[in-house]
Design brief:
single chain; alpha/beta; Rossmann fold; four-stranded parallel sheet; globular
């Protein structure tokens, strides 16, 4: 997303008055532009896709404690299957989407990404970064994946693409012409996925936390 220069300039002016530190303000404004104000992910022509990476969004918890994909991930699975049918690209998908895809993608073309489990065999939360790390761990060299077409919930898409690119999938983007799901599930097993405001704040918090961690790491170097 390209932000209006005037908007960032106004932020710069305001924060210089508040903080009195032009160098820090310049960095902070860049971060705010990306981590708070950017939501429309870059796109590519679907036919350029050589690998599909599908991210889940929430799930459904059953009364017995089992997790099922839920309607949002079923919609993501439909798009994943459609993009595979158009491109024949191999698919890496979080297990909820892989389960919902079923036989629409051949098993030799579908790699499900599962979370690790704790001592009680309960699944550990798998972050967006963790998904990308798991995929790269499978293939070794990110370049082997080629041009990655991302399938993700609409409000999650920008961060999915940004995360993939940060890990070396430099051409990752959303497939143009594919409308990603944007309706929230009020019964999602993940509370931050039940309403738009809660999720947008969650997404911003993750972006800012990762940015903070990078700044701390830079101090050590």
């Amino acid at each position: 997303m390209v932000l209006p220069r005037g908007l960032l300039a106004q932020l710069d002016t305001l924060l210089r008055e508040e903080l009195g530190d032009p160098a820090t303000v310049a960095a902070l404004v860049r971060n705010l532009g990306e981590d708070v104000l950017s939501w429309r992910a870059p796109e590519i022509a679907p036919e350029r896709t050589t690998t599909i990476l599908a991210f889940t969004f929430g799930n459904r918890m059953q009364p017995n404690g089992n997790r099922t994909p839920g309607a949002v991930n079923e919609a993501l699975a439909d798009l994943t299957a459609r993009l595979h049918a158009e491109t024949n690209a191999p698919v890496f998908a979080q297990w909820e989407i892989a389960e919902a895809v079923g036989g629409r993608v051949p098993q030799d073309k579908l790699t499900a990404i599962f979370p690790a489990r704790d001592a009680r065999a309960e699944p550990l939360y798998l972050s967006t970064s963790g998904v990308v790390e798991a995929v790269i761990g499978r293939v070794g060299d990110p370049a082997l994946l080629g041009t990655v077409g991302i399938v993700a919930f609409a409000d999650h898409a920008w961060r999915c693409v940004a995360t993939a690119r940060r890990f070396g999938l430099l051409d990752a983007a959303m497939p143009a012409g594919y409308t990603m799901p944007d309706q929230y599930d009020p019964l999602s097993g993940q509370p931050w996925c039940r309403s738009r405001l809660a999720y947008l704040l969650h997404d911003i918090a993750i972006r800012i936390t990762e940015r903070r961690d990078a700044a701390i790491s830079a101090q050590a170097n």
